[in-house]
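hey can u check if this looks right to u? its 186 residues, i copy pasted from the old doc so theres a chance i mangled smth
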Amino acid sequence: MRLILLGGPGAGKGTQAAKLKEHYGIPHISTGEVLREARAAGTELGKKAAEYMDAGKLLPDNIILGIVSDKMDMPDMKNGFLFDGFPRTIPQAKGLDKILQEKGQALDSVVSIDVNDGIVIDRLLKRSEIEGRADDNRETIENRLKVYYEQTEPLKDYYKGCGLLKSIDGVGTVDEIFERIKAVLS
């Protein structure tokens, strides 16, 4: 299973990714983790990524795509994967398409976990209280949503055009949402 999870901040992608990883026996790839691994390994791309990360800048697509491509060559990726947080933009999606084509692979599905903004804001403010996360204040959450709608939301139309998009209602219990995802994937 080669899968991408889409959804705004607070949609529950990380929670569902953990369940999908276990259910399908595939690695869950978070770009943040991949970037930190590449940096720690001291690879050429990891060193370039570190320069941008240390300066607080967004990484150019070519670096992100290079690191993702390297990660996809790992033995545990041969039977499938689950991307969460990647791709974030149409150029990254097109770059991923090219990488997959070069490796003789294709995506099986793209699942969008859809949750309205009011619920997302409530979820993230509650998470902030529980976990003490300073980055989950209302202003930051609203900005993250704005960035999501500008940069990542267009991926839904892109993948719909590719015949890969499956949207599910992201409101309910963790298990209810997981059952919805399994249903659209079967």
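The mean pLDDT is 89.
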